[in-house]
Amino acid sequence: MRRIVNARVVTPAGIRLGGAVFDERGIIAVEDAPSDRLAPRPEGAETIDAEGAWLVPGGIDPHVHFGGFGDIPIADDFWTGSCGALAGGTTTVMDFCEPARGEDARAVIARRMADASCSAVDYAFHFVLSEQYEDLLADLSCIEDEAGIRDYKLFTVYDNTTLGLDDVRSIFSRLAGDLRRTFLIHAEDAELVACLQDELGDSVDMQYLARTRPDTAEFREVEALHDLVAETGARVCIAHSTCAETVALLDGPLPCGEFLLETCPHYLAFTEDALAGDRGARSTMVPPLRTIADQAALWEAILSGKLSILSTDHCPYHARYKDDATYRTVPCGVDGVQWRMIYAYSEGVVKRGLSMERFVDLTSAAAARFYGMWPRKGCIAPGSDADLVLIDPVGTTTLGMGVSASAIDYSIYEGMELSGRIARVFKGGREVYDGTAVHAEPGSGSFLRR
What we know:
Layout: E1 2-11, E2 14-23, E3 26-32, E4 46-49, E5 54-57, E6 59-61, H1 78-87, E7 90-97, H2 105-115, E8 122-128, H3 133-137, H4 140-146, E9 151-155, H5 165-175, E10 182-186, H6 190-200, H7 207-212, H8 215-232, E11 235-238, H9 244-248, E12 258-263, H10 265-269, H11 292-304, E13 309-310, H12 319-322, H13 340-352, H14 356-370, E14 388-398, E15 417-427, E16 430-433
Parallel strand pairs: 1-4, 1-5, 6-7, 7-8, 8-9, 9-10, 10-11, 11-12, 12-13
Antiparallel strand pairs: 1-2, 2-3, 5-14, 14-15, 15-16
């Protein structure tokens, strides 16, 4: 049993000066600060003096790719990726079960469960409905009842996963009636992207990535999906939102359903200027980086509470796979799982006045509620999992390879100086990060049935 004292605890009921008592079974109590700092502690409890640090729930990153994706290997598998997550205060992730062409639901779930067996963080899966979704949905009982997966990833682009709006409407009509089901959607207009690529041809200039996947390609699809949510009552989160036009849709009426946006730290930290030059390939992801105006719109939506979830789409590739590619062949994806929470604290809370309640919502609570993990995850309350993070507001953090706990060989955040420091991380009541090193065992994470 452990007892954290002298912390600023961010709870669902507000901020309290005090701490928490917890063990491996969960949080036992949330305490106010005693008038006497030497008040008796629970019998047998180890007392940790937080010295005024923030105590927040372990982070939930609901959009990561740890191995198992495409022909070019992702730098992080579930072990190295989860070590990076823990070092950054994230204790739960959501990855993907994406069937290869012709692979059935049971096979892909078994394959991805095996991949995740070494994870040191708790994990859940989105199930990708490919172009063969009719066959996959024939195994709905396998996906939901046997495996406990109730979130579906839809793409409107990419080989084997391109779904037209009629396909999405069909899927919503069949699945949206059960409000335990949710949908994460990668939204781009595949026709417009293909047309622009044909028009501009290939190039080693990575600025072509932004030109051939413009904000219009995102907005057109998101606007149509917003209309489908209103029509069907589906619960939808738009993955990695990037542009001002997408954000503006949050102001529109929605008679039924749920329509959320997630974005990622790289869209808040960098603009399309990073695509220029010899190292531009290292800053490629899809959708691509946007303009300063788009970045400002995303920050405004975060500060106002409109934008719900900060994920990472963590999907890093080693530099050797990026540097000699064209914009059409480059493996798109960057790192972020270790930097997400301290970036949001420094650039949101310290620099822009984001409240700590909104910080918690952005980094854990909103995802926990949307994806059916609340109140086990995403809050500090009796009975919740003892996934806890101490953020030292006085310390500083320099991002990059010198402190990376994952397997990446470069970071787009290299050298970034941030306010605050992830001081200690507890997962399942056990200390897994002490401020300098990860102390976790492979396989110590658990699969979360939803």
